[in-house]
Every structure is written in structure tokens, then in C-alpha cells.
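Subject: Prolyl-tRNA editing enzyme YbaK/EbsC (Cys-tRNA(Pro) deacylase)

B.,
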Amino acid sequence: MRAPIGDFDAATPAPDCLDELTAPVAEAVRQWQGSVPADRIVYVDTDPRWADTAVFVEHYGRDLLEQSANCVVVAGKRGGGTTLAACLVLSTTRVDVNGVVRRQLGARKASFAAMDTATGETGMEYGGITPVGLPAGWPVLVDAAVADLPYVLVGSGRRRGKLLVPGKALAELPGAVVLEGLGVG
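Prediction pasted inline below.
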């Protein structure tokens, strides 16, 4: 199969390569629900040395810069409690943690979660965290610009490999809330 975006040697429907995914991502693909069929989620094998966005687009296609999204874990604090959430924004923007995220989570303070918290809670590798397969009950905040794309390049749960996911499917993930202005210039 040919990848819907980018210049990759091989592309495979995610349900056909579950062994390439981390356990939580593979399970999410197995249990997939929504208006977009699971086989429209595409896995592409990539070299982990080129996992970071700037190097990645140089190797796999400059057009991917406008079609890539970063998924980051944030921690919202209020009183004695902490709410973990994922934020998905275009790779050309940054997450508005102190504005949009803090207000959406009803938090007094919001910040990026520590690396060990992000990886420990998600079961994914740092630099490969994806919104597919996050823990049940987590808010998944999706920038409207991401949801509007026909396909979005996101992590696969590992630094090796990426997922190409229709924006509409990301907007339908469990716990997903599509927000204008989540990603800022």
C-alpha cells in the first residue's frame, strides 16, 4: 500500500501490524470504534534516529511539516488533585498550556508532565507518544486545525514508526475535545 501522505518505503494498515505497536496502541486499534474504519489508520516504519520533527521531515518529505502533529502530556492541578491529559497540536505550533489547556481542565495551574510520568502512565516511549491508546478517562485535547486535516502524522507509541491517522478519527477518540486555539504560533 502507498502512504496517503509523505514519502515512505512501506505503509501498512495498523490492524495488519499490531506487533509493531506498543501494547496500549495495539489494543486501541483492536478495539477501534468510530466512523473512520481502523484500516484507514496507517503504520509507516521509520528510523528512530529521525524521530524528531525537524530531522524527520528532511528525510521523509518536507510536505509532512504541515501535516504532522505533536502529542504531549500535560498535568492540570487544582487543590490536591492532578488531572493528566493529552494535547494534540500541529508540529508548527506549541500548546497553549497556561491558557486554553488550564481553562479546559478547570485547573489552577497546568504544565507539561514530567517525562517519567508521561511514559509511565501511557506505556509509550518519550518522543513517540500518540493520542491512540491513551489511558481510559484521559481528556484528549485536539486542536481544530489537526481535526480538519485529511491525514495527520503522529507517533506510534514508540520512537520507531509513525501513524498516519485521518483528522476526523483523532477528533472521535475516547475523551477527545476539539478546541480552537489549542496550538499557538
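Residues 31 and 38 are 9 Å apart (CA to CA).

T.
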